[in-house]
Design brief:
By secondary structure, the chain is α/β, with parallel strands linked by helices. Helices cover 55% and strands 9% of the residues. The chain folds into two domains: 159 residues, HUPs (Rossmann fold), CATH 3.40.50; 209 residues, Hypothetical protein af1432, CATH 1.10.3210.10. It contains 20 helices and six strands. The structure holds 2'-deoxyguanosine-5'-diphosphate and fe (iii) ion (2 copies). One fe (iii) ion binds next to helix 15.
């Protein structure tokens, strides 16, 4: 008997999370062989016109090259029409074979609505890989687990894999914005994407990727290592959220993220001087608080120092200006920078880490546009509330804009 694993997906592009899932699947399900099927036209997902199957196939071959016992198959892509899983299973079924089908959580929960579910369950054992330890999802999985057993006699195994929680749409945003792909993509895939100029999307404004790369080099030399690491974390997080909520604003988001704390390590007198010379309005509470002043002085710096003239875009300046307190009626860009600053990966404070986990665990990539904006605003509200709580606990003054931001985000949800 051969135990043959089946892993289908769009793979646009394949990333480290997919590779980790494939490895875990081979081990956990004790597979003799794993076949990976980039999908033709997936029935569940609408793919963009530039997602050429030939590119996805080539990238999958690169990405999964080092996974033991795995092979990438072009079978689904060669089929005309839609990629129905049951057809792939029928194609592979043989008397001397056991088929094991890998599904993600969301796929697993809807398996009974797929084309010919009874045949899927008859032909294959199901291996459901859970991406995150979300209590609500876990309960849903348990429920479906018994339901599939009762209805279809389904054979199901659950595979816990703490793989990278990152959607391909977020990744395409990081590519389009020119962000760092090293943490997410196998090197060969990143090279392939660059060579074929995949996933480029037109960006608003006049900022160029060369401006941004030069700015990043400058900040790397200027900032302390911890501040620069935080800055890069905000950049990466802003691109991920931007890919979902503001796909044409990725260069402005990178600029605002890179510059948001540009003056944080300057002495207060220097910051006050920059702000005074620029004519920017600084509130009294900001003049006396070193934690608050840097948002005003960084915005002033971008608006007045010729060295930053490439970034003197009103949307960028506003996102920097309001990144610490927020304000009433924040733009989407302002909200993204405000939140990215709080939930970027190098923040280890428990309140920040909790918000970060909850934000991504809700899987905003799977939401429709309205739900994504509501999700973003809800987390802006939660962030403001946590900050207010933190300030109350320490007996610190609360800026009026922080309260206004919170009430606004609460009311518009
Ligand atoms: O510059 P970062 O450390 O990356 O983050 P930030 O710009 O959000 O600044 C966070 C600090 O600002 C933190 O110590 C809390 C403080 N802060 C945020 N909102 C308020 C505030 N301090 C006062 N006094 N009032 C606020 O409304
Ligand atoms: Fe800051
Ligand atoms: Fe910051």
């Amino acid at each position: 008997m051969e135990r043959l694993g089946i892993y289908g997906g769009t793979f646009a592009p394949p990333h480290n999370g997919h590779v980790a899932a494939a490895r875990a699947f081979v081990e956990d399900a004790r597979l003799d062989r794993l076949l990976i099927f980039p999908a033709g036209i997936p029935p569940h997902k609408q793919i963009a016109a530039d997602d050429d199957p030939a590119h996805r196939l080539a990238m999958a071959r690169i990405a999964f090259a080092d996974v033991p016992r795995a092979e990438v198959s072009d079978w689904e892509i060669r089929q005309s029409g839609r990629s129905y899983t049951v057809l792939t299973l029928e194609h592979l079924a043989a008397p001397d074979r056991e088929l094991v089908l890998l599904t993600g959580t969301d796929m697993f929960l809807t398996l009974d609505q797929w084309y010919r579910p009874a045949d899927i369950f008859r032909l294959a054992e199901i291996c459901c890989i859970r991406r995150e330890a979300d209590a609500e999802k876990s309960a849903q999985i348990e429920k479906k687990f018994s339901e599939y057993w009762e209805l279809f006699g389904a054979r199901v195994r659950l595979l816990e894999e703490d793989a990278l929680v990152l959607s391909s749409s977020e990744l395409r945003g990081i590519v389009a914005g020119g962000g760092d792909l090293a943490p997410y993509l196998p090197n060969g895939v990143a090279d392939y994407i660059a060579a074929h100029r995949l996933y480029r999307a037109a960006q608003n404004g006049s900022i160029t990727p060369a401006d941004l790369d030069a700015l990043k080099d400058r900040l790397a030399a200027e900032q302390s290592p911890a501040r620069f690491a935080h800055t890069c974390g905000v950049e990466q997080t802003a691109l991920r959220i931007g890919a979902l909520c503001a796909p044409g604003e990725l260069y402005r988001l990178r600029a605002a993220a890179l510059l948001h704390d540009a003056t944080k390590e300057y002495p207060c007198e220097k910051q006050l001087k920059i702000a005074a010379e620029s004519g920017i309005i600084v509130f009294d509470c900001e003049k006396t608080s070193s934690a608050l002043l840097h948002a005003a002085s960084a915005a002033a710096l971008i608006g007045s120092d010729p060295a930053y003239s490439a970034f003197a875009d009103p949307a960028v300046i506003d996102a920097v200006r309001w990144h610490t307190t927020g304000r009433e009626g924040m733009s989407v860009l302002e909200q993204i920078i405000f939140l990215a600053d709080y939930i970027e990966p190098t923040r280890t404070h428990a309140a920040c880490a909790a918000l970060r986990e909850q934000f991504w665990a809700a899987d905003p990539a799977a939401m429709d546009e309205d739900a994504r904006f509501a999700h973003l605003r809800r987390f802006v509200c939660l962030e403001a509330e946590q900050t207010i709580r933190h300030l109350l606990d320490r007996g610190a003054p609360i800026a009026e804009n922080t309260l206004r931001a919170r009430n606004w985000a609460l009311a518009s949800n």
